[in-house]
Design goal:
The protein has 651 residues and is an alpha+beta fold. The protein contains 13 helices and 32 strands. Strand 26 and strand 27 (477-479) form a beta hairpin. Helix 10 (575-588) crosses helix 13 (643-650). 42% of the residues are buried.
Length: 651
């Protein structure tokens, strides 16, 4: 029976995977080579962007930017839904794009929209102004419009319940949004000519919209999410693209890059098999459920005992590996996990100070029951960190898996985490001095170089942040928390997962598109830490509602980079080293992964064997797929660039 059930499950899931394919269209920039792939009405391709409405380079005889509407659609239809065996299947899709809106008059208007349309027809007549090229007075609100859109509105429309002149909304056959949200509280201003990152996602049930000011790394929560069955609002074949308009006040509505991925639900040649599955699978599921309930009741206890025996055998058989502790020993060491001995708390649980019977001080990590860090992460942390040997890594002493408890035992770090020393020391006498900060960042870089290039198997940390950098009695950096870390062979490039791992603000933008962790994504996290240490500010500056990297890049553009230095240092730092770390932090935080330096290059720069890389004055827009790397050329061309020159220019 078990073999039959297993065979059916394997067949069913293998078949599901075959049926779920995708179609992807990627435009990292727009030029004449891609013009033939679009249907362009009243717009243009100019300066590497889709100009959705007329721009100043539009060669029309009677040129005017006022009261215009434009539309640019991908010249390819997609199957959005289909009905088979009395069941409607809806295709999921993801669209990520970078938009830029440039005012041509004082207040600017009207905005642009990402659209899903039923045809490649031109915008309706008189669809300028508040209608965004989507509708006109007679078609607004009509089901025959067959348009679903996500609007990025730069003017408050009359009678449309718009919150302000800077908002995003989801529109269904009407210019009146079914749901909307102001972008101002999220520090996003549409019409200031900056790059705005947008992500529109449909999973077959919900249409979700994410927006950030040119930075995808914090796109972890949807700004808008609306439950909608698109089969009831659109025909089965649709077109994707953009629409925009101007009124008496004008602006340039630009799309700088675009990636579209749509699930392919086209009819296959296996219709008979699919129908057979539709009929047979419900019956099989009933049998499976009955069987699994029976098996689960009998085997759950056995499975738990077996997994524990296998884990203990794997860990105790490893030479020089961490030893197994008894639960009562760790309970005694931490005074029954008394709150007075708690060192910190995170998503995984809590860490306690303890004293073993042999008077050895330790830190005991107790994984909570509701933690995202389960047995798999527990095992990963033990098996990975136990085989690593480096002066800048936290040393694991042992573990305990008993009575449902998951416990890890480490060397105690007397000076706690870098996070606490940077952000939670209010007394000026307790401020971490510059020499220690520089040594700490160099130590973290050394640890990452070891993980990426020097150990037997390449290790991706995947959760590098200030709170995971511990400090020993001499303030040396010790990188810890390997619960999300993964081992890969040196000839591999990445680790793929179904969910993005890490902490918002430290997650590289490309991870949201691929689900892959790479050495470059670790470098991005390192850049965030380096900027934190130099500036004494968190990756997202809540007080100013902007990202630290954007703020620092703005100061770099204005030749005021030293103004980013932590004011609590009271100018007591080496100016060359501060400039170096700030520029290095920006280079590692580059939106495009292939432009970031390697950790070996980072160490050379911190060791003053190489100057920091040259940076563009303006922070580049995120592009996916990443363009070919020219980081090596930048580093090479900057060999004659001296920190002293940068210092003198900033002065």
């Amino acid at each position: 029976m078990a073999r039959v059930v297993l065979s059916l499950l394997v067949f069913f899931f293998k078949y599901s995977i075959v049926l779920a394919s995708v179609k992807t269209h990627t435009f990292p920039l727009f030029d004449e080579t891609v013009r033939s792939q679009f249907v362009i009405t009243n717009g243009n391709i100019n300066k590497g962007a889709l100009q959705v409405t007329r721009d100043t380079a539009n060669p029309t005889p009677e040129f005017s930017l006022k009261n215009q509407s434009g539309r640019i659609l991908l010249d390819k239809s997609f199957r959005l839904w289909k009905i088979s065996a009395e069941r409607t299947t809806l295709a999921s899709f993801n669209a990520t794009f970078v938009l830029s809106i440039v005012n041509q008059t004082a207040s600017g208007g009207e905005g642009l929209a990402f659209i899903i349309a039923s045809s490649k027809n031109d915008p309706p007549d008189n669809s300028y102004g508040e209608y965004l090229g989507l509708f006109n007075q007679s078609t607004d609100g009509s089901y025959s419009s067959d348009v679903v859109a996500v609007e990025f509105d730069t003017r408050k429309s009359t009678g449309a319940d718009d919150p302000d002149d800077n908002h995003v909304g989801i529109n269904v056959n009407s210019i009146k949004s079914v749901t909307r949200a102001s972008l101002s509280p999220h520090n996003v201003l549409l019409k200031n000519a900056s790059d705005i990152f947008a992500w529109v996602q449909y999973d077959g049930k919900n249409l979700s919209v994410y927006v950030n000011a040119g930075n995808v790394s914090d796109a972890s929560n949807a700004l808008l999410s609306f439950a909608i069955d698109l089969s009831k609002n659109l025909p089965d074949n649709v077109y994707f693209g953009f629409s925009a308009s101007t009124g008496n006040e004008t602006e340039l509505n630009c799309i700088r890059s675009w990636n579209l991925t749509v699930e392919d639900i086209s009819d296959s040649s296996n219709k008979g098999t699919i129908i057979g599955l539709a009929v047979g699978v419900p019956l099989v599921v009933v049998l499976i459920l009955g069987f699994l309930i029976f098996v689960f009741v009998r085997r759950v206890g056995y499975t738990h005992r077996k997994s524990q025996r296998l884990m203990e055998r794997a860990l105790t058989d490893s030479t020089g590996g961490p030893r197994k502790f008894r639960l009562k020993e760790l309970t005694s060491a931490t005074h029954n996990f008394d709150k007075k001995y708690k060192l910190g708390e995170g998503g995984f649980g809590s860490v306690y100070r303890g004293l073993l019977s042999n008077k050895t001080p330790v830190a005991v990590k107790r994984v909570s029951d509701n933690s995202h860090q389960g047995l798999q992460e527990f095992l990963a942390e033990i098996t990975i960190i136990s085989r690593l040997r480096h002066k800048n890594l936290v040393r694991i002493l042992g573990w305990c898996h008993e009575d449902g408890e998951l416990l890890l035992v480490y060397d105690l770090m007397p000076n706690g985490s870098l996070d606490k020393l940077i952000f939670k020391m209010d007394n000026k006498n307790e401020v971490l001095d510059w020499d220690r900060r520089y040594r700490i960042v160099s130590g973290v870089a050394s640890a990452l170089l070891y993980l990426h290039e020097e150990c037997e198997q390449q290790v991706l940390h995947r959760d590098l942040k200030a709170s995971n950098v511990m400090l020993d009695s001499e303030y040396n950096a010790r990188l810890g928390d390997f619960g999300l870390a993964r081992l890969i062979e040196h000839d591999k490039n990445s680790y793929t997962t179904t969910a993005v791992a890490g902490t918002p603000g430290y997650i590289a933008p490309e991870c949201f598109h691929t689900g892959r962790a790479t050495i470059e994504s670790d470098v991005f996290s390192f850049g965030a830490v380096a900027l934190e240490v130099a500036c004494g500010r968190r990756p997202r500056m809540e007080s100013q509602q902007i990202h630290l990297v954007d703020w620092v890049w703005g100061l770099y553009r204005e030749n005021r980079l030293l103004d980013a230095a932590d004011t609590r240092l009271a100018q007591k730092f080496d100016r060359d080293e501060m400039l170096c770390m700030l520029q290095l932090g920006l280079a590692c935080s580059h939106p495009n992964s292939q432009e970031r330096p390697t950790m070996r290059q980072v160490l050379q720069i911190l060791g003053k064997d190489a100057p920091p890389p040259l940076l563009p004055l303006f922070k580049p827009a995120f592009v996916w797929p990443a363009p070919p790397s020219n980081m090596s050329e930048i580093l090479s061309s900057s060999r004659d660039f001296s920190i002293q020159e940068n210092q003198s220019s900033s002065e």
